[in-house]
Amino acid sequence: MTDDRSISPHQSSYNARSANPIAAPILTWTLIQLAALLLAASGVRLWARPQPPATEAYAIWIMLTAQVAASALLFPWLLRDVRASVYVIISDALFVQLAGLLAQEDGWLIGEAAAGVCVWLIWLGILRRMLVSAHMELLAIALVATMIIGGGSLLYLRPEFTKTPLPHLRGVAWLILATLLVGTALALLLRRRRLRQVVHRSLT
After folding, report:
1. Among candidates 37, 14, 17, which has minimal Cα distance to 25?
2. pTM, whole model, 2 decimals?
3. Where are the domains of the chain?
C-alpha cells in the first residue's frame, strides 16, 4: 500500500492535471478553427472595401487571428497537459495550411505562418507550466490577451482608416515576439516572488 504522505505536492498537482479529461479543450479548439475556416470560405464580406472580391483572399489572416486570439485567452485550459498540447499544435499547422490553400498563398508563406503559430503555442505551453497558481494564470491571460488582441486591433484599424494595405505577417511576428518577451519576464518575476514567499513561510 502506498503512503500518500510520500507523494510530493508537485507530483500530486501533476497527477491531477493528467487525470483531467482533454475532450473539451480538443473539441473547443477544433470548433474555433473550423468556424474561422468556414467564415473565410463562405465569401461573406467583413468590411466595406473594394478589394479583394471575397474573404477567401484573407483566409490565412482570419485563421491566424482566430488561433492566436483564442489561444491567448484559453491557453491555461487548452494546454493543460502534454496530450492536449500536442493536439493543439498539430491541428494548428493543419488548419493554417488549409487556410493558406484557400487563399492561394505561396507555400513558403504558409509554412512561415504555421511555424510561427506553432512556436507561439509552444511558448504558451511553457508559460502554462511556469504558472503555479490561479492568480498567476489570470495575470498572464490578462497580459497576453491585452497585447495580442489590442495590438492586433491596431494593426487592423490602420489599413481600415488610412487606406494602406494590411501589414505583412512579419509585423505580426514582431508583435508576438514582444508579447513573448514581456510575458516571460512577468512569469519569471511572479514565480520568483512566489518561491520567496514559500521559502519565507517554511523558515518561519
Report:
1. 17
2. 0.70
3. 20-203
SS (H, E, C) the chain: CCCHHHCCHHHHHHHHHHHCCCHHHHHHHHHHHHHHHHHHHHCCCCCCCCCCCCHHHHHHHHHHHHHHHHHHHHHHHHCCCHHHHHHHHHHHHHHHHHHHHHCCCCHHHHHHHHHHHHHHHHHHHHHHHHCCCHHHHHHHHHHHHHHHHHHHHHHHHHHHHHCCCCCCHHHHHHHHHHHHHHHHHHHHHHHHHHHHHHHHHHHC
The pLDDT of residue 12 is above 50? no
Residues 29-55: pLDDT tens digits?
Answer: 999 999 998 988 887 766 666 555 555
pLDDT for residue 11: 45
- Is residue 95 within 8 Å of 33, Cβ to Cβ? yes
Cell of 41: 470560405
